[in-house]
Specification:
By secondary structure, the chain is mainly β. 8% of the residues lie in helices and 48% in strands.
Length: 996
Amino acid sequence: MKKITFTALTVPLTYVLIMLLCSLKTYAQEKTLTLSGVVKDVNGPLAGVLVWQTDTENGTQTNELGFYTIQIPMNTQVTFDYLGYKPQTFTVKTSTLNVTMVADENMLDEMVINAGYYTVKDKERTGSISKITAKEIGQQPVANPLAAMQGRMAGVNITQNSGVPGGGFDIQIRGRNSLRTEGNAPLYIVDGVPFASQSASDQTLSGQIFSKGNVSPLNSINPNDIESIEVLKDADATAIYGSRGSNGVVLITTKKGSSDRTTFSFQSTTSVSTVAKYMDLMNTDQYLQMRRDAFANAGITDYPANAYDVNGIWDENKYTNWQKEFLGGRAVSQNTQFSVSGGSGKTNYLFSAGHRKDETVFPGDFGYKRTNFLLNVNHQSKDDRFYFQSTVLKSNQKNNLMVTDLTSQIFLAPNAPDLYDAEGNLNWENNTFENPLAKLNATYESQSNDFSANVVLGYALIKNLNVSLNAGLQTTNNVEFKKVPTTTMNPALGFTSKDSSVSRTLFSRDGWIMEPKLNYSLVTNTGVWNFLLGTTFEERKQDILGLRGNGFLSNDMLDNLQSATSQLILKDADLMYRYQAFYARVNYIHQQKYIVNLTGRRDGSSRFGPGKQWGNFGAVGTAWLFSRENVFDKSSWLSFGKLRASYGIAGNDLIGDYQYLNTFRLNYLKYDEQIALEPTRLFNPDFSWETNKKVEVALELELFKSRIAPSIVYYSNRSSNQLVGIPLPGTTGFASVQANLNATVENSGWEFTLRSINMSKNQFFWSTNINISLPKNKLIAFPNLEESTYANTYEIGKPTSIRKVYTYTGIDPVTGLFTFEDLNGDGKIDVNDRKKAMNVNTMMFAGIQNSINYKNWSLDFTIQFVKQNALSPLSNVSPLGYNVNNLSMTSDYVSNENPNGSYQIPILQTNSLGTQAYENYKNSDQMIIDGSYIRLKSLQLQYSWQLNNKSNSRIATYVQGQNLFTITNYPGSDPETAIGYLPALRTIALGFNFNF
């Protein structure tokens, strides 16, 4: 119905609008000249440029492609005006006038970027900040803002964990600083309000459908509501956030209204997503030959009764590609959004409402829904001394999925029976077949409600002295429901609803923040001083209640835990986190070319014991704008040049709450019919902040009238005083105690960016942005590593992402089994021989974005490059010979006909030596393979046109693509996504945007 509606509206409406446009143009030619053209700067087309007949009220604005059209008398003057650029006035002689706006150096303080607590001139910043805007975000049919950032920022590596809607992402800003996974999360700030970086999901409920149970907290934010995303990376940029910015800061700014006129916008996008690539698995002939060889190698000539795949019970001529059966669906998504913005005088507003629905590629009626609301109101007093900003975000998410990702079922024997019988019921093939579709009866449901509000009040006490208050709150309420009825099992087993189980977790997070600050600026004869002084008060409370019910009178009653015959409280926890800080910043610009930026912050965290709760952090940043030296005044090739450097120390308290206390918990298993307390953590009030020392040097240039803008950055971050669990003897009753370890992790690397204007002629414009990152991670210190329990995990001088593996030595010609190097010569292969260190990480990642505009057409695409080592898909497959399928390449195994095969002989489960050899193989250097890839990450082709010459109403129609194709030698489905989970999907979208 939606497709019919979309077509029915678009085709006739387009025809009518074109006819209307033609008729209006003809009429205009009879009266006045229709002037049109494209307005751009060195970076590309400019949207929102005022184009008006000089000294009149006849005017218009450029659209998102920089295109304008206006009716104007011949030989009159037209003016082009845009904040931060020099106004330009021309006398109209022809019907086409293209304009290139020139930045006004005297208005650099108007051309600012968001640095969090303050704004900074883009050309005069001393820190490292990457940015993408609503334009780049809107070119991609994505549900999560993190997906829109992939491949577009140097130093920011983002990977998608799963193609299941509502899943999570992993983000690393210049590497992993902490030895703990949870200690590497960045700080998310949305319109001044912190968003928790941790997943709100209970991993015990969601771990089978999402990798590590990770559900991104940013799923609640509609990418279409975002105006810009800035990522703060180095010490100078992040120091203002103190310990919270140790791993980088992601600043998300939502869209604002305009006060010139009331504008309505309606956008609708329909997309279809599919699995981009299937693995090359054995066909039926290859599979059956492998199985027969397994029995032959075991000396079995008469196949057992339960070997249905080879003993003739199952059709040996049947072949099914189970990847297509389980993952071959088309996930249709519909995204619709409406907004209204406007204002009057110095007050403006924007209200936006959106709804998104995503289906899955799995069989069955599963999917994800999200509804978003955004309200933004801004006001400034008539005398400009008082200003008020308010933002409210509200979202509701519902995810209805199966418990288990069916990607794990694709290795079913290719000659297994059909999934349904002749009557359309699940087929159990006379109890010879465990039907994977029965797993769909076990469901995972989640419902999340998120609310965020922010208010900023500011007042100019005296000239250049401003006081402001930022106050915000954020709440999350999440309910997860996991139902496992006995209908997931073969009915012949006789299970009833008394064996069904249900788990429910209720999670709530409430947080508030209040930040008063004072800002003072002073202009002297030699330079400009800026002073910032402020404090932060933050509190976050979490409540978690986990329940489980077993045994029901009927499976129809699984939604009611009260109907369970056995009810357990698995967890009931209240957590409180309090944070307080004082910060100051001093910025001095001498003669508009020498810049010093000093930042200091004193942080207090409730996660540490008395006497350890406060830490001092800070940074210094410097910059030299050498292009403003007199020697370059007449330079024909250097438009802008800056050399900057920074150094600072940040902290980290991402260890969870109450880690220093001697804590207990209630055990739901009773002793002598009494509820018992059990100790969970030892008291240790002596541990404190992790510290991260950051150094950066950068060179930024703009050459040949800013047509080419390269930059090069070197950084080195050293994180020490690591917060980890220190191993304890088993006699203590505890595996470890939380403490500071004098280990040091170094992240260093190079980042390169290049912006170029390839062509700018008439109405044709082509620009390119390139970013390249070369990260390097290593452990440079770890006292007594060899004597610790981490000896088989880390190695000095190697990355923290290494795996200690066996060294593969080939196949024993006698046994036909895999062999490995016996390093200690004890005659056996065990954990003491797993000493070879191999890196499973990214060595390089890059992105190339191209933007091409011609008249009303625009083409934008991004190519992503990743050089990495990855785990082989064989690490998730059973040994050859078992009654499960395998990759086609493993059919090259050792046999009498193929003595030089690449894989060991097929075996049965009863062959313990063969099974152990295969398990060793899965933990050997053969499992770390090249996972590099080149991917056409995103593409958008758009056509935009104005409805008539007298209004700003316009329509844009577009086709978008995401993950369109990938070039890689990786034998799995996708080199990015976690093994065993649905890969990132290929998406094709069609939509339109109507503004009036």
